[in-house]
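Here is the promised in-class demo. Please do not try to memorize the tokens; focus on the logic of going from shape to residues.
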């Protein structure tokens, strides 16, 4: 018959082992519960379908849709849940646009399976009728919440937001465009009405986060990162500060090569991440997030992936 002391000792050891086992199981479950999401993004590609020519310039050999597509395919093979988006100015900048008016650009994006895009000011350069014509080549939505296209060819052709599911995650995506007056000839945008981006993006972001239950809200912005000459001009920095439910702003327009994402506190004191990757498809932006039911989301790593290689002839 066991002594009382021996019984108590063995019981304590058994309880400790059970607690340790449960701790290991809990940690294993927590790790298994984490879902990764990789967001790839471009902006201001400006019809750069081919790499920059080998002419001795600083960008020689960089860019091009073939190299970008290869990178995207490689990353998708490594990362199960990958989102691919563009922040506008798909058109204008090379003879491809002058001749084909955006068809090869849209077909290339369709082949790379973009999930969503927004419009930049240069996407109006051949008129709204032309932009609508080119939309026949893609299946991804054009998201814009602060342009009223009533009475134009784009009426009913864009969406204020879209929701993309990646694994167990729901990602809400909206978009905002820049003021067109004084930037784009009036005959090219017609009856398009520019609406306050902060007001409208906050309305959409609230709907996505609070009503649709999205785990993350992404805004594709063509407002520009910031303006030194006019600090009060609407831009991504101001949008982030005045927002409430946006988690990530993918920017465009100012062709800003950001070494690392910027993190801004919104009006509720929460973090908003801003990133932009220059122009011409020289860089593919990559943001790796981790989501857990216990700790919500966190940015695990940010990359700027150079598209193509600088080589000498």
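The designed amino acids, position by position:
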């Amino acid at each position: 018959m066991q002594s009382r002391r021996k019984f108590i000792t063995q019981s304590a050891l058994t309880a400790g082992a059970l607690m340790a086992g449960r701790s290991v199981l809990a940690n294993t479950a927590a790790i298994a519960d984490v879902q990764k999401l990789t967001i790839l993004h471009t902006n201001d590609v400006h019809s750069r379908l081919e790499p920059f020519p080998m002419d001795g310039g600083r960008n020689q050999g960089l860019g091009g849709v073939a190299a970008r597509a290869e990178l995207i395919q490689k990353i998708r093979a490594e990362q199960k849940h990958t989102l691919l988006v563009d922040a506008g100015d798909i058109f204008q900048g090379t003879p491809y646009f002058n001749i084909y008016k955006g068809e090869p650009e849209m077909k290339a994006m369709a082949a790379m399976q973009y999930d969503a895009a927004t419009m930049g000011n240069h996407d109006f350069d051949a008129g709204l009728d032309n932009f609508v014509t080119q939309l026949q080549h893609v299946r991804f939505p054009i998201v814009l919440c602060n342009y009223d296209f009533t009475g134009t060819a784009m009426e009913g052709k864009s969406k204020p937001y879209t929701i993309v599911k990646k694994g167990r995650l729901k990602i809400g995506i909206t978009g905002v465009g820049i003021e067109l007056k004084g930037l784009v000839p009036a005959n090219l945008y017609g009856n398009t009405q520019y609406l306050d981006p902060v007001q409208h993006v906050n309305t959409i972001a609230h709907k996505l986060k609070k009503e649709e239950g999205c785990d993350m809200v992404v805004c594709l912005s063509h407002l520009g990162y910031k303006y030194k000459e006019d600090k009060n001009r609407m831009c991504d920095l101001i949008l982030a500060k005045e927002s409430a439910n946006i988690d990530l702003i993918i920017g465009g327009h100012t062709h800003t090569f950001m070494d690392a994402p910027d993190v801004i506190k919104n009006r509720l004191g929460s973090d908003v991440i801003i990133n932009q990757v220059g122009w011409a498809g020289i860089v593919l932006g990559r943001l790796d997030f981790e989501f857990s039911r216990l700790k919500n989301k966190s940015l695990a790593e940010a990359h700027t992936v150079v598209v193509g290689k600088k080589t000498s002839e």
